[in-house]
Amino acid sequence: MKIAIISDIHAPGNAENPQIRGELAEMLILRAINRFNKWIKPDVVIICGDLVDGNDNDVARLWLQKIRQVLEKLECPFITVRGNHDPSADYFYKIFENKEQFDIAGTRFLVFDDKQEPEFCASRTENQIKRFKNARTNFEGSIISVQHVPLFPTGMSECPYVYTNAEEIISEMKKQNIFMAISGHYHKGLGHIQSQGMNFIAAPALCEMPFGYMVVEIDGDKVSVADDKMQLEPELGLVDRHVHTQLAYCSENMDAGLILKLYKDFGLADIVFTEHSGQLYFEDNPFWTGECYKNGLEGLNKKHNRMEKYFDLMKENNVPKKSIGLEVDFDYAGRPMIKPEDRERVGFLLGSIHKLSEMWKETVDWGAVRQEYLFRTEAILKSGVNVLAHPFRMFHRKGAELPVDLYEKVVNMLKQYKVAAEVNFHSQEAEIEFVRMCVESGVRLAISSDCHNMYELGELWPHLKMLEKAGISNKDLGRILL
Length: 482
Ligand SMILES: [Fe+2]
Ligand SMILES: [Fe+2]
Ligand SMILES: [Fe+2]
What we know:
2 domains; TIM Barrel; 6-stranded mixed sheet; Purple Acid Phosphatase, chain A, domain 2; 7-stranded parallel sheet; alpha/beta; 20 strands; 31% helix; binds fe (ii) ion
């Protein structure tokens, strides 16, 4: 049983408490959902209260609806708890189902909406305490109590917000062999303690830096609890060198100004904007169909050239040259699609393949695909780009088998032309074997988000997890990263 816990989202924030970053609610929840769906794969997600901040005011009520919609993207069941800053029960349970008990993968979750007490405390009524006994009747599996205010044994946590009748509740829990209590509310979080054969957990607030959450794994009686967060360790000094803007045709909600405001909050040391050259020079149709790669820049129609718009956007936001880059497309002849005068104005270049002509023919000749791939990759590397973007993406895109036997050739070329290899999880899993070979050959890695939605900005979590799996620890990063 794997349980992911996010708590205290506090959308859309609170003017009196600037450390509460409820304005980031949607970004943070989407980032969590993306991690959960793609990599963590919990059996259930618990949202442990204070989804919004503002009780029954109109803005808070609207945000509650919005959060409900966002949570629908989860690929596993979720349980929501009503917190002291959420709307009244009448309204809350119009938006979220009023369900007190969930049986998921053999574990029984009891959700409590307890009485609030002064000083942000709570208490549980006799009737509610009786639910433990009822839940235990004819049920042998693990039972978990879920509530907003930390339910911890008296004197065993630093948290001043407590259950005024904690002892009474916990003694009944012991009697009914309740396995665990999961809470939120205390924004610092309280980690995990074991007492009287039971487990007590309080998750940190998602809305406060470093934007924490928890993952609890239960295997029989064994419990392991991992604290994790949405923010990168600022000490790592990581740079996201693949950031799109509102000018990308594939942008979902990118906003260059907002990116500049937020990247440090997500733990990044710096960013580099890298808009697609092919999308700036050409209209969306010739870009997506691949028509623009047939004649490259010779087919450029001045009327549709948006490159100047990109530089205007950079200027409006005072972006220094070192942070203005381009993700350069290469035509089928292997020529970079970037005008010399535009190249002068940028400080960084990614080189990309977004289409292989041989791959999209009616009958595919895989020998020809491989030839084209190698020819165009070498053309990119020769051209003097800094990084080869998403090296094998086209094979993932096509759902084709990865050309594992080409890894060595590509690594050798990267080494020869002194170009870094991008590690990119945007629409595929990066290839750990290829990454290992790059590290062994001394080819530098660029770990990048390739963000097209604000929630992806600086999301380098899967990259770091993969490097860890490849035996590369954080202290090696300086040696292996661009
Ligand atoms: Fe809270
Ligand atoms: Fe790309
Ligand atoms: Fe990109």
